[in-house]
Design a protein that fits this description.
This protein is α+β, with helices and mostly antiparallel strands and 306 residues long. It is built from seven helices and 14 strands.
Amino acid sequence: MGVIRNVSLPAGALAPLAIAGLGFVHPTTPAPTPPGFSATLKYPAVAVDEPLPADSASPECTKHFADAAPPQSQWHPDPGRIVLCRNGYMLAFNPVTRVPDWVIERLSPQAVSGPAKRKDNFREDSLLAGKGSTLADYKGAPYDRGHQAPAADASVNQQTMDETFFLSNMAPQVGVGFNQGAWRFLEDRIRNWVLCGGHKDLFVITGPIFGSDELKPIGNGRVHVPARFFKIIYDPNSRRGFGLVLNNVFIGAKIDDMAKYVQPIRTIEAQTGYAFLSGLTEREADTLKDTAGEVWGHTSACPASS
């Protein structure tokens, strides 16, 4: 699939995409910058002058994610993000932090249970024209190249899975006990909700949270290391969902009590500066965003999370 560049839209421009209660539009009143937000991470506009590939912004790709149009910044009027749309995900890459601001997936049983095999073919993303992270940035760093859209979520075919290994889909994550433990456990649990938890069409939005406690950057200061990561899980059929936030630290091989990581979506909006699920009605938004929500379960027939 291709790439959509220079996303800077006027208020209301995304209103036609507010389908099935999951459009994203600019809020009318900007939210204040939350305490602790690092002023050094404001996102300047980035000029993108190179021609787009012939298949850029494939209608098939953007249509697949139309119900989840890009989240809109609440305090950065022109974040200069570069939006990429591929088979298994859509993301907004930040050329300042060199990690994605957010990644949207749309999961189904077919997507997460196909024949593709993991090849660990990590590679740089040529679509970012030199604005992305590199393999050298991560070499020798004390962090994993952490998938934001997991490879296993893209099992439907080999191309879709291989596309999750672009570095544009990565952020530095603590390895043992987080990326190789609790975070992977969470990803497994989400797939179980799709496979046997009754949520056969699920939107998952993943991204970093920065602040005054941002970790030391890697790659000679080029790649910022998030202090935390969030996931917003939303079922457009039941109009139910919730958010989770995990510190980018050693947690363990699994999550014993996932409920303690649940946070209201409003809290995640305040921490990231993005407005999520703005296509909901006011009543739906108040019900969904202002409460912490409850972690879903799945049937005993579903394989247990590792």
